[in-house]
């Protein structure tokens, strides 16, 4: 397939620019046609220097481009609430990197296949992308009665958007552990670590399960880690599943690819990596349909 699907990114901040470089370097099925900002966007020149067309006229500037099929929204939840109906009315698929959660939660190795025709897909949170695959893997071999995750990220990789959305992070992540990860009950905690040099993102996952089988649990978790590593090479299992009675504890760490952000910003990297994987899946699907949806 030589043809590519035209796409755009709204929001030339850290996440938007990191996603931009990922698409430019690695995408097989997408062509980045536009970076969308406004007249206060300081980093639009970064996109222009990379050869990406830009507009500082926000969503209005984007909607003038009928050819763009997929739009990644890397702004704020409040902004996406405005953008979503406009994008849907224009026939564009929205991949939402904010906590707005208008569309279904999507975690690429778990449920992307079922949502390739949806007009709006939500990428949950960085903690959700890191931990839901493990909880889901456990749910494939045993019943998960409770899942609790603790996401620890470097304070330096938590920008204003992350800090302003701590409540949304915990609520959205916990809900997605149930909806996508298939846990009966759940809880999510995020910690900002101020250490110097900054730490890599780590995620500890505690699950209460029924009749744990160590062999099946280890096999399921290891298979899932390899699936995630297909699109997040820096994803690694730091603590293999440890079983104590009915409690299973494991830990994963994410080292960023360093495309635009520092390698310790694994929390942002896993979100942009998931966005790339979702975009690739949708774009390939559109190309197989002849470029339309």
Can you walk through the features of this model?
With 293 residues, this protein is an alpha/beta fold. The chain folds into two domains: 5-123 and 271-288, Rossmann fold (3-Layer(aba) Sandwich); 126-263, 2-Layer Sandwich (Dihydrodipicolinate Reductase, domain 2), CATH 3.30.360.10. It has ten helices and eleven strands. The protein has helices spanning 14-26, 44-49, 58-63, 77-89, 108-111, 126-139, 160-164, 166-179, 214-229, 266-288; strands at 5-10, 30-36, 54-55, 70-73, 93-96, 120-122, 144-154, 185-193, 201-209, 235-244, 247-254. It has a six-stranded parallel β-sheet, with helices on both faces. The protein starts with a strand and ends in a 5-residue tail after the last helix.
Record the SSE blueprint:
Blueprint: E1 5-10, H1 14-26, E2 30-36, H2 44-49, E3 54-55, H3 58-63, E4 70-73, H4 77-89, E5 93-96, H5 108-111, E6 120-122, H6 126-139, E7 144-154, H7 160-164, H8 166-179, E8 185-193, E9 201-209, H9 214-229, E10 235-244, E11 247-254, H10 266-288
Parallel strand pairs: 1-2, 1-4, 2-3, 4-5, 5-6, 7-8
Antiparallel strand pairs: 7-9, 9-11, 10-11
């Amino acid at each position: 397939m030589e043809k590519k699907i035209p796409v755009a990114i709204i929001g030339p901040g850290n996440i938007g620019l990191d996603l931009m470089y990922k698409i430019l370097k690695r995408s097989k099925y997408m062509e980045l046609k536009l970076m969308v900002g406004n007249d206060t966007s300081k980093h639009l020149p970064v996109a222009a220097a990379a050869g990406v067309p830009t507009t500082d006229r926000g969503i209005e500037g984007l909607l003038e481009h009928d050819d763009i099929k997929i739009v990644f929204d890397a702004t704020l939840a409040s902004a996406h609430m405005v953008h979503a109906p406009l994008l849907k009315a224009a026939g564009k698929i929205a991949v939402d990197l904010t906590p707005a959660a208008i569309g279904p939660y999507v975690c690429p190795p778990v449920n992307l296949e079922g949502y390739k025709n949806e007009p709006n897909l939500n990428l949950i949170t960085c903690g959700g992308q890191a931990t839901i695959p493990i909880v889901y893997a456990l749910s494939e071999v045993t019943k998960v009665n409770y899942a609790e995750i603790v996401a620890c990220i470097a304070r330096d990789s938590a920008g204003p958007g992350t800090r302003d959305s701590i409540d949304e992070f915990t609520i959205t992540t916990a809900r997605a552990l149930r909806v996508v990860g298939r846990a009966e009950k759940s809880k999510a905690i995020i910690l900002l670590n101020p250490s110097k040099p900054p730490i890599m993102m780590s995620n500890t996952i505690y699950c209460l399960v029924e009749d744990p089988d160590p062999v099946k649990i280890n096999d399921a978790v290891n298979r899932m880690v390899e699936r995630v590593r297909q699109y997040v090479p820096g994803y690694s299992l730091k603590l293999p599943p440890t079983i104590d009675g009915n409690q299973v504890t494991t830990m994963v760490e994410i080292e960023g690819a360093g495309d635009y952000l520092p390698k310790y910003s694994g929390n942002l990297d896993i979100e942009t990596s998931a966005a790339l994987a979702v975009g690739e899946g949708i774009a390939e699907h559109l190309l197989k349909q002849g470029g339309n949806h």
